[in-house]
Amino acid sequence: MRLDKLLFETGFGSRRTVKRLLKSKQVQLNGQTIMVDSLNVDPQLQEVTVAGVPIDYQPHVYYMLHKPAGVVSAVSDAVNQTVIDLIEPSQRVPGLFPVGRLDKDTEGLLLLTNNGQLGYQLLIPKKEVTKCYEVVVNERVTDDDQLAFTAGIVFDGGVICKPAQLTILSQSDTESRVLLEISEGKFHQVKKMFLSVGKKVIYLKRLSMGPLQLDKTLSLGSYRPLHAEELVALKPYFK
Ligand code: URA
User: Fold this and answer.
1) Which residues line ligand 1 (CB under 6 A)?
2) Residue 81 C-alpha to ligand 1 middle, in angstroms?
3) Which domains does the chain possess?
């Protein structure tokens, strides 16, 4: 990894600040002052210090969690079990956080990582990362509902959603099971979209986020590190 990237990722400021640190001769590699920002270094094999203090380098981890209902998408919570509590203590590295939020009663795919940059890139509205949800609502979904979702739902008296794809999987007069694809992440978005057409969400599960698909072999509450091909698929979001 490049020295400037390492310093940036370990919290020494913007790229410009990192450049300044190097220029002011505050960075040492195995005791030697280094001023070349592009130098390749390995913090697991070499000691990097800034102003004499060794940097605290944590390799990045990426876990796919099948979130169960009843658990909150937070790092800590005084009352509820959190998604971090579902991770083995020995794998709970510092800085681990959920990328985005699923409601307490929502199940499904949640990415946990300590790579803040990746989390940011997956969540910024500009990137329009697609999320697919399996949704059960308490009424029959109509053609008009589908048209409204395609046109762009408006809720909370003026919050306009981007066009969303609504596909009916099965339905009766008292229930519909659908797939909903959205490319934004407003708070309680799916529930509010359905409420705006007079329907209540009674079950919600996230099946995918960007290139990541929920691994069907993961039972509720279990997790696994991302596979190499999943990390490759996330490449557009690594900065
Ligand atoms: N939309 C919701 O309403 N809830 C979720 O948990 C995710 C998307």
Assistant:
1) 102-103, 106, 188-191, 204
2) 18
3) 3-54 (3.10.290.10), 62-125+212-237 (3.30.70.580), 130-209 (3.30.70.1560)
